[in-house]
Design a protein that fits this description.
The chain has 13 helices and two strands, in the order αβαααααααααααβα. By secondary structure, it is mostly helical. A two-stranded antiparallel sheet has the order 1-2.
Length: about 280
């Protein structure tokens, strides 16, 4: 394998692991309890995703978002501006320049968030008492441990890519991290602006094949808002959901259980109901 091919494989592996950590660990397991993972696997997956934010704060904010999606109080609705929804809500800014710099910061964003995230957006943490009840998640959500783990994440992965590939590797991993952050942020912004709305309102969540593909299944966002408890987001034929494929594999290995998905009759009823409302 050439050095360039090895670097591509390194960055692709980082991309897939990061996507799995956020989609499966933070989102479908911690926030929605769509399934239960073996506790060791769950903690490993969530720990790999720690640059996304502290587990308690992330789950609490996400649950509040679903309860108030695109209505007053929603932490990240594009009704309050694109950049606010995309990433400005993390840092209390709405101006494009600051938000764009934050969007491109890559590992510097992880380091800044290592200090900032445990101290900000904590107002909905009380909505995740089940996450806070886990001693590991409670520990890593504290400012000191979270900062230490953020520093370790940057040191380990960027140190490894520099040792293996030099500064070209650092640049490639930086770009990969920028893509990961912005694809995740696009679920809060773009996925509430662009795409199809098979269920109507009151929220603006959309399905979009491009985000479904690049976000490993998270882009089927209208389905997710209609069935937030579902471990599967790509509910219709042809809606590729890589995270769901991983969940099926883990279930087959005995590492996942209590996997929840809507029955076909539930999905048909929801789509038919919205069709009737739209025709009225």
């Amino acid at each position: 394998m050439s050095e360039a091919a090895a670097l591509v494989a390194f960055c692709a592996g980082y991309y897939l692991c990061a996507g799995l950590a956020i989609n499966l660990g933070y989102h479908r397991v911690l926030s929605h309890r769509s399934l239960a993972l073996h506790k060791g696997v769950e903690r490993l997956v969530v720990t790999l995703g720690l640059p996304a934010g502290t587990p308690i704060q992330w789950a609490g904010n996400h649950r509040f978002h679903h309860a108030h999606a695109d209505r007053p109080g929603d932490p990240h609705s594009p009704r309050d501006g694109f950049w606010h929804a995309h990433n400005g809500w993390y840092i209390g800014r709405k101006d494009a320049v600051t938000c764009l710099l934050y969007a491109l910061a890559g590992p510097l964003r992880i380091l800044y968030d290592g200090w900032h995230r445990p101290r900000s957006n904590q107002e909905h943490a009380h909505l995740a008492p089940d996450v806070a009840a886990d001693p590991w998640y409670r520990f890593v959500s504290r400012p000191g441990p979270y900062l230490a783990l953020a520093l370790a994440h940057v040191a380990i992965f960027f140190g490894a890519v520099h040792a293996l590939f030099g500064w070209m590797g650092v640049g490639a991993l930086w770009l990969t991290l920028v893509i990961i952050f912005n694809l995740g942020d696009a679920i809060d912004s773009v996925a509430h602006i662009v795409g199809t709305m098979p269920y109507g309102g009151p929220d603006l969540a959309r399905n979009h094949w491009f985000l479904g593909l690049l976000c490993l299944g998270e882009g089927w966002h209208a389905h997710h808002h209609r069935f937030p408890w579902s471990a599967r987001h790509g509910l219709l034929r042809g809606q590729w959901d890589w995270t769901w494929l991983v969940i099926q594999t883990l279930a087959a290995l005995g590492l996942a259980r209590d996997v929840r998905v809507p029955a076909p009759a539930q999905l048909r009823a929801a789509l038919a109901e919205e069709a009737r409302v739209g025709a009225a």
